[in-house]
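hey so i finally got around to running both of the ones u sent me last week. sorry it took forever, my laptop kept dying halfway thru and i had to restart like 3 times lol. anyway pasting them below in the order u listed, first the sequence line then the C-alpha cell line for each. didnt double check formatting much so if smth looks off just lmk and ill redo it

first one:
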Amino acid sequence: MMKKVFALMAALVLSACASAAGDAGMTVTSASASLPQVQAGSSLRNAITVGSITGGKKTLPFWKSEVGDSEFGTALKNSLGNVGLLATAGRYHLDVVLTDMDQPLIALDTTVTSTAHYSLTDNSAGRVVFDQTIKADFTAKLMDQPIGFVRLKRANEGSIRHNIELFLQALAAASI
C-alpha cells in the first residue's frame, strides 16, 4: 500500500513541473491586425539582424516558468521574419535586454508584465537609430487554463508576444 501511495505522490509531483515559455507562443504572426505593414521601399525591409538577447532566465522544473534568452531570441527572429524585417546580414543590428519579468507567485487570473530594452544600430553609420524600453502585460485567465503552472507559462508567452508586437509598432512609427 505504501508503495502505491509513494508512486502516486511521485507522479503528482512530477506532473506539476514547470516548463519554460516556448518560442511558438511568443512569436508575433504576420496576421496580427494591430501591426502596420512594412512598405516595400522601407529601409527596414529585410534589413535587421538580431544580435545579443540577454536577461532571460532558465526555468527550474520544480519552481516556476521563465523566459530563456534562446526562446526569446527565436521568437523575436521569427516575428521579424513574419513581418518582413529579418535579414541574415542586414544593415541594422538589434540587441535586446529582457530587464524584468514581473510574475505573481500565486494568482487566479495570472498577469505577467515583461520589460525589454531594444537597441537598433545602423551598421553603416555606426550609430543607434532606435533605443527604447517596452513594457507589456498579458493575463492568462483561470477559466482558460485551470492549472496554475501552465497558466503562468501562457502569461509569460503572451506578455513577451505583446512586448514584441509593441516593439514592432514603435519601430514602424519611428523615423529611421
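and the second one:
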Amino acid sequence: MADLDSVTHRKRVLVVDDEPKFCYVVAGFLLGRGYETLVASNGDEALQKMEQFNPEVVLMDIRMPGRSGFEVVKEARARFLPPRIIMMTAVDSSSAIDEAKNSGADAYLCKPIDLNDLERLIATI
C-alpha cells in the first residue's frame, strides 16, 4: 500500500478554446507532463466541466462563439470555488489585458503560446 506522502498530487487543468486542435495540443502536452486535463469548446461547456471536473487551473480563450471568456470567468467566480484562470487570445492589446484582469483572471497569455512558458505559469499560480 502506498504511503500517502509519496503520492503526488496532479493538478487538474481545463483547456477551453473553440479551436479543437489547439485544445488537444495543449491538453496532450500537459497530460504528458503529469497533469490531469480536460477540454471544453465553448463557455457553457466550460462552466459545466468546471463544476464536474473541479479544475485547479483553467486556460480560457477570450473569443469564442456564444459566451466570451470574460463572461465565463465572471460567472465561474460567482458560482464555484474559483480555480486559477489564465486568459489567452491572439489579440495583444492593453484593453484586452485590462478586461481580463477586471473579469477576475489571474494571468494573461498571447497566442501563439510557448508550451514550456505555459507549464511554468501553471506551476506558479
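quick thing i noticed on the 2nd:
The first strand starts at residue 12 and ends at 16.
anyway thats it, ttyl
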